[in-house]
Amino acid sequence: MHKIIAILTFSFLACASYANTVIEVPASPEQGFNFPYLLKLPDAWEPDKKTYLIVEANNTGEPSDNLSFHYAAAKGAIGGNAVGPWLARQLSFPILMPVFPRPESQDHIYTHALDRDTMTAGSSAIDRLDLQLAAMIEDAKNRLSEKSAAVEDKILLAGFSASGTFANRFSFLHPEKIAMVVAGGLNGTLMLPLKCIDKHALNYPIGINDFESITGSNFDLDSWQNIAQFLFMGAQDTNDAVAYADAYSEAERQTIYNTTGKLMQPDRWLNSQKVYIDSGANVEFHTFPGVGHATNGEIHREFLDFVKKKL
Fold it and tell me: How far apart, in whole angstroms, are the C-alpha atoms of residue 258 and residue 34?
């Protein structure tokens, strides 16, 4: 594990400028996280403003056993135009991005999507990345509060593609920590707040049938229903992760096909939406015409308006 990481020190002053300031925090197993994370400060900090910590999981886009590869990708992404970093710039909020590995030697483990293999990795360093991210969030909030920078207790969770799927699943695992979710490129497939459909058991990450055995606690439906969610897809998005072995097992694939549909759009996407609405989710669904597996200015404006409205 690479630990050649500098921790930048900083002080907060009213309306101070911190353009491009990224705090690089090393792994701290004693605090609950086995990998480093990045914390980017807003360009102009306004200490009297109601502020949320934005969190987006890293998504390298390909596996590698070299953590420095994922570190470099996260370092580039946190200052880019992905959903979370873009929102952070528009709102002048801090953003946290973990540096989680995605091992090539174990390419069935899709850590960046928080799949079942990740959640059941046992004694491995990647076990329960959700708890590791939760520990990073608390560490980041402590670092900010120690410097007189107050953020709201709940976070704003964001993501697109694999990191969007990570956000969707994390919202089930820790709904009490989340105020809002903005996630897209979701393969028409959402984790469902159901134990079964038509006698098909919905185990994690398809649903909550074995939620307690996987997590050690019951699913908190009330907290999940309180999360304001903006979930979106491009109408021409053909990126269907369900078809690939690194994202889903054959058993998971068949369960999805038998319950919400084999066709990603419109069947599976619309059926997932119906489940959320019927379950009392506080959610807005958007399908953007003419858009594939990507975002654009219109989409960014839509979810920015949503976040501002909810704030």
Answer: 37
